[in-house]
Specification:
Number of helices: 7
Structural class: mainly alpha
Largest sheet: none
Distance between the termini: 45 Å
Helix content: over 70%
Shape: elongated
Order of helices and strands: HHHHHHH
Length: about 210
């Protein structure tokens, strides 16, 4: 599987459109998160105002953290593709005999946990991107505040899409403890979506929209 960093946008979109198991919606969720982190880093760099040392220091901290999140989100794109490929491989296992069927179901359940873990991590990362965007907005260069809203919207899309990708895998997970742990990681999604939406609305109000 070609590393995501070695693909052009066109190559990634072509793979996304192809009749292949990966990349899919989970990778897109991670890509949304990566775009949100990148936008936060960009706005923070444009918000380096020398006349306000506190704003400069805050922007620098946000830039550093956003870059870390960008790297992690990019890793999650690759991880999601690998996890979903593992699920597809498990579904291709033979099932003619009872023993084969049991082994296949166990492999599907194990692969599904991995496939759910990645989007669960994307949700958490999207929350961190949203928090950074909120912290940045008060000191952000007003010429690029729409990009703060864009970052929040990207984080919102990441969390919403990632939740779906956790939920679709839950039905294939037989381990009750694993199901409960993954389900608990979805509890804050509605709040995160509202928080990101409110940040976007705040920017629109500032623009007079």
């Amino acid at each position: 599987m070609t590393p995501i960093g070695d693909r052009t946008i066109g190559e990634f979109l072509g793979a996304l459109a192809a009749r292949e198991p990966a990349p899919g919606g989970g990778a897109v969720a991670a890509l949304h998160a990566a775009q949100g982190a990148a936008l936060v880093a960009m706005v923070a760099r444009y918000s380096d105002r020398a006349e306000d040392p506190e704003a400069v220091a805050l922007a620098a901290r946000i830039t550093t953290r956003a870059e870390v999140l960008l790297v992690r989100a990019t890793e999650l794109i690759q991880a999601d593709m690998a996890a979903f490929a593992a699920v597809a491989e498990a579904y291709r296992l033979p099932r003619a005999e009872p023993r084969e069927q049991a082994a296949r179901q166990a492999a599907i359940a194990a692969a599904s946990i991995g496939a759910a873990e990645v989007p669960a991590a994307v949700i958490e990362l999207a929350g961190q991107v949203t928090e950074l965007a909120e912290a940045l907005l008060p000191v952000a260069n007003r010429n690029v505040i729409t990009d703060v809203a864009a970052a929040a919207d990207a984080a919102r899309a990441a969390a919403s899409t990632a939740r779906l990708n956790v939920e679709i895998n839950l039905g294939s997970i037989s381990d009750a403890a694993a199901r409960a742990a993954l389900t608990s990681r979805l509890e804050g999604v509605d709040g995160l979506l509202a928080e990101a939406g409110a940040l976007s609305d705040l920017v629109r109000r500032e623009l007079g929209s």
